[in-house]
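Researcher: I'd like a structural prediction for the single chain below. Treat it as a standalone chain; there are no partners to consider.
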Amino acid sequence: MKIVQGDQVSVETGTSHRGGVSEWRRLLDGESGAIDNFSLVWAQSPGRFSPRHRHNFEQIRFQLEGTAKYGRTSVLKPGMVGYYPEAVHYGPQTQEEGEMLGVLVLQFGGASGSGYIGRAEQADLTEELRGLGEFKDGVFRRNDDAPGKRNLDGFQAIWEHAKQRPLTYPDPRYDAPVFMDPENYDWLPIANSPGAVVKTLGVFTECQTMIRFLKLDAGAWYSAPGARDIYFVLSGAGVVAGEPWRNATTLYVAQGENVRLEASAETEILHLRLPNLDHLKSRDGAPRQAAE
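Model: Treating it as a single chain, here is the predicted structure.
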């Protein structure tokens, strides 16, 4: 189990391969190179453009502030959640001039076993590529004297630079991203946990990626079984494993662990479950490297 107080995590500032200047707090990271690698960041950006594109990994985004526009994919307003399946196009992403966007972003290897290149490694690869060209409006534009395709999606350029081969996308399991408004879902009671209710938005792919919200009354408790679960506190107060929680407290519960959440004030929590990729691991149970 890991507990991170989000408001105590250092703020990093910089530009990414998508362009624009952003600030982010890196809350959680998985195991680099593993098929079940992941990262969770709390990001803010005053301006961003990203062309229509896709990835060979998956994403979940919870909009905290501002409205992210995704062209014909629709919009993500504050309080909404988006699930972005691997190999599915989305965007272009835009926002109003001067509008601040705040978003919680979970990126992770999906059901295909293609894996996920972590943010630290992406940053290093981006800097290497800047010696061969420039990133502009989400596209990597290679210098005339550098070998390779002149214009390429920024992430695809990073992946191919890392692997030294063309990126082949897995067959998509969905036709489009799924945008969800929690206001249109009902709270349901949790058995054997008086004062605890849950709002499940969806469970995705055969690997059971899950998005839901948990709400606890003051004095209520919830026993949290571990299945690679992430809890992000949106409001309220309480204690978990002897440590207090508050807004932006983040909890990671690994497979087989179990923790008890005890609320001292009414609390709402975003609960995300990473996909179970055990069937893609080697026989000895150790995570294998992402698909080559």
